[in-house]
TrEMBL record:
InterPro entries: NAD(P)-bd_dom_sf, SDR_fam, SDR_subfam_1. Keywords: NAD, Oxidoreductase. Belongs to the short-chain dehydrogenases/reductases (SDR) family. It comes from Nocardia vinacea. The keyword Aminoacyl-tRNA synthetase does not apply. It holds the Pfam family adh_short_C2. The lineage of its organism: Bacteria, Bacillati, Actinomycetota, Actinomycetes, Mycobacteriales. This is Mycofactocin-coupled SDR family oxidoreductase.
Length: 287
């Protein structure tokens, strides 16, 4: 028996990157998956987002593991679309045991419009709230909610430098608000024995990190930095010298939080950051 055998988990942003890694890790341990993704680009986001082909590939890989999946195109900014996807999945599988609110964007770069700020918030924060809202009527005692935050939620001057434009400010604001939301949500749901936790990664080796906008963020001294140029600066957000962690590293944390192993863990801000937080926020003296 797997660690989440026969649980049903709803995952947003499941077409690639961390979302796909979560779907596959949970399926490996026995879960069935309800997966959604936008499968379109957002104009203020300067790198390409996942496609329908990506979501189809996630579905194929889950199926290959011998688990069931309902995969649907849906925008986390649209509560009705998420509710419909969850309802379809619950009708297919008969239950819902967990939520992984993973979908996110990082619309960095100088932009004249404040829309990048709004887009970052409506995807990265509102999208978490909408995922929880869609799932909550179906969750029972023992269920688990996991939201993806960021090291940027916990330390200053990560991507919230004005040089990164309004989208960078919006990203940090959204992730800080996710952390606060999870804290208070855990309080509200404790009496129902439904858990809520956040996972805060450092750099993760996905398309959100591996794009020209992020390279410029890490190497503002260069006009057109390459990945190789940026790679030497990536360890600035860790404390162990590594430039990033892999999506599978975050998926292992998500698996723990969805599984019964964490049945008494709630309201936690779980950092998978290779020491990035303790490097930036050293412990204050006790006196």
């Amino acid at each position: 028996m797997g660690r989440v055998q026969d649980k049903v988990v709803f995952i947003t942003g499941a077409a690639r990157g961390q979302g796909r890694a979560h779907a596959l890790r949970l399926a490996e341990e026995g879960a069935d998956i309800i997966a959604v993704d936008l499968c379109e680009n957002i104009p203020t986001n300067g790198y390409a987002l996942a496609s329908q082909d990506d979501l189809d590939e996630t579905a194929r890989l889950v199926d290959k593991l011998g688990r069931r999946i309902v995969a649907r195109k849906a925008d986390v900014r649209d509560p009705a679309a998420l509710k419909a996807a969850v309802a379809e999945g619950v009708a297919e599988f008969g239950r819902l045991d967990g939520v992984v609110a993973q979908a996110g964007i990082a619309p960095l770069g100088p932009q004249d419009s404040a829309l990048a700020f709004i887009d970052a918030i409506t995807v990265d924060f509102n999208g978490v709230v909408h995922a929880v809202e869609a799932a909550l009527p179906h969750l029972k005692a023992g269920a688990s909610i996991v939201a993806t935050g960021s090291l940027a939620a916990l330390i200053p001057a990560s991507v919230d430098n004005p040089a990164n434009g309004p989208g960078g400010l919006g990203y940090s604001f959204a992730k800080r608000t996710v952390a606060a939301f999870i804290h208070d949500l855990a309080t509200v749901l404790a009496s129902r024995q439904i858990r809520a936790n956040a996972v805060h990664p450092t750099n993760v080796n996905t398309d959100m990190l591996n794009n020209e906008l992020m390279y410029r963020s890490f190497r503002p001294d260069l006009e057109n930095p390459t990945r190789e140029d940026a790679l030497v600066s990536f360890p600035a957000t860790t404390g162990m010298g590594n430039p990033y962690v892999e999506p599978e590293d975050i998926a292992d944390a998500v698996l723990y939080l969805i599984s019964e192993e964490s049945r008494w863990v709630t309201g936690m801000q779980m950092r998978v950051d290779a020491g990035g937080y303790v490097r930036k926020r050293p412990q204050l003296p006790a006196f």
